[in-house]
Specification:
This protein is an alpha+beta fold. It has a single domain, classed as YefM-like domain (YefM-like fold, 3-Layer(aba) Sandwich). It has 4 helices and 3 strands; from the N terminus they run E-H-H-E-E-H-H. Strands 1-2-3 form a 3-stranded mixed beta sheet.
Length: 78
């Protein structure tokens, strides 16, 4: 999956839609984080594939030192 920034996606929307129509998956990032994915209309995404992609993202994510789940819950982030 190729990722493009939101600004670039706005500039090249027609091209990106055409590429998605042809079967390519295109990620759109906002401030460096994946915000949306363009996929061909009518394509079905299995729940298994969704969880596989979540696992891929989790493997790339870094934990910050000194941040605990308890602290995040207390701040209302989780």
């Amino acid at each position: 999956m190729k990722n493009v920034g939101l600004f670039e996606a706005k500039q090249k929307l027609s091209e990106l839609v055409e590429r998605a129509r042809e079967g390519e998956r295109i990620g759109i990032t906002r401030r460096g984080k994946l915000a949306a994915v363009l996929i061909p209309a009518g394509s079905e995404i299995s729940i298994e594939r969704v969880f596989e992609e979540i696992d891929e993202i989790r493997k790339r994510a870094r934990r910050r030192k000194g941040v605990t789940a308890r602290a995040l819950i207390a701040e209302g982030r989780i």
